[in-house]
Amino acid sequence: MNQHPHVNPAPEEDNDDEMVGTLLSRRRALRLLGFGGGAVALAAGSVLAQRTPPPGGQGMGTGGTSAGTSGATSLPGCVVRPAQTEGPYFIDEKLNRSDIRKDSKSGKVSAGLPLTLDFVVSKVTVGSCTPRRRVLIDVWQCDASGVYSDVSGNTDDFLRGSQVTNAQGKASFTTIYPGWYTGRAVHIHFKLRPLDASGKPTGEFTSQLFFPEAVTDAAHAVAPYKSKGKRNTLNSTDGIYRNGGSQLLLNLTGNPQKGYRATFDVGLNIG
Predict the structure, then answer these.
(1) What band does 60 get if pLDDT is binned at 50, 70 and 90?
(2) pLDDT averaged over the chain?
(3) Does domain 1-271 have CATH number 3.30.420.40?
(4) Which residues contact 269 (CB under 8 A, 6 or more apart)?
(5) Cα–Cα distance between 104 and 43 in angstroms, integer?
(6) In which band, very low, low, confident or very high, does the pLDDT at 154 lie, cut at 50, 70 and 90?
(7) CA separation (Å) from 152 to 38, 147, 149, 172, 178?
(8) pTM of the prediction?
(9) Which of 113, 186, 242, 258 is the most exposed place for a label (fewest CB within 10 A)?
(10) Which phi and psi angles does 32 have, rounded to 5°?
(11) C-alpha–C-alpha distance, residues 209 and 220, integer Å
(12) CA 156 to chain centre
């Protein structure tokens, strides 16, 4: 059975700290979505958060909970998520699988706390969200030791995979709680690509998911995470997180004995 080398990503390879995207204020987002006085109708492809330049179209990121304040109109549940850098470790493996823990070559399963990640993708219209089917979702992340597959000399494909959303706009992944590596807070990468009738992508939106510090503290206090020691970068000191990471923070249920689950709602008006 092949063993992948547990070598942390080389600092010179890691451009995850590159800043991308434009995060709009809540007031401007409300206006674009048609709420309040002087509202502007939301046209297809309108930009709330985008890469620079937008690849294949204009990206909208959205939030899983309403962002209401006292006396103000709340945004719909699928509105306002910022795009973030792809980083150096994306590989279009075309691994159509829901459980991404196993390396397809060696059969080795990545050790770690189980994490079920449910995506719900919607199209955003004025004041509402409707399910968006046929969106290809890729996820990729490091293992409990902070190592990515298929980079830095190893040829494994653990903790990478893709799924296409169903008629309800849903796709689910079984993975592990991610570890950490120098210079980055704990995170998972994801990419959304709407597909046309022939299966060809018609746009792209890329971002990252983050984890509450208290949950990470509990998860990383157990094996196999604890052998690596305490992480050296928190959300508050991560340059990517500071670029809108609070809107990409997962709300998890579970515990370090049985594992965790999170649902991530995101609106996509590209493609």
Answers:
(1) very low
(2) 78
(3) no
(4) 42, 44, 45, 46, 58, 60, 123, 124
(5) 42
(6) confident
(7) 53, 9, 8, 28, 18
(8) 0.77
(9) 258
(10) -65, -30
(11) 17
(12) 21
Helix (H, G, I), strand (E, B) or coil at 74: coil
Greatest C-alpha distance within the chain: 64
The two tokens of residue 41 are 């109708």
> For the chain, which residues make up each domain, given as ranges?
1-271
Burial (CB < 10 A; 0-12, 13-18, 19+), residue 19, is exposed
Helix (H, G, I), strand (E, B) or coil at 266: strand
Q: Residue 63's Cα: distance from chain center in Å? A: 12
Question: pLDDT (tens digit, 9 = 90+) per residue, 68-104?
Answer: 222 334 445 665 578 899 999 999 999 999 999 999 9
> Two tokens at 244?
């809108």
Question: Rounded distance, CA 30 to CA 15, Å?
Answer: 33
Q: How far is the C-alpha of 148 from the C-alpha of 203, rounded, in Å? A: 26
User: Contact, 239 vs 87, CB < 8 A?
Assistant: no
In whole angstroms, give the CA distance from residue 183 to residue 239: 9
Residue that has been written with the tokens 């010179």 in this structure:
12
- Which amino acid would we find at residue 102? K
Distances from the Cα of 90 to the Cα of 93, 97, 155, 236, 257, angstroms: 9, 16, 13, 24, 31
Structure token digits, residue 266: 């995101």
Q: Please tell me what DSSP assigns to residue 99.
A: B
Cα separation of 178 and 243, whole Å?
A: 20
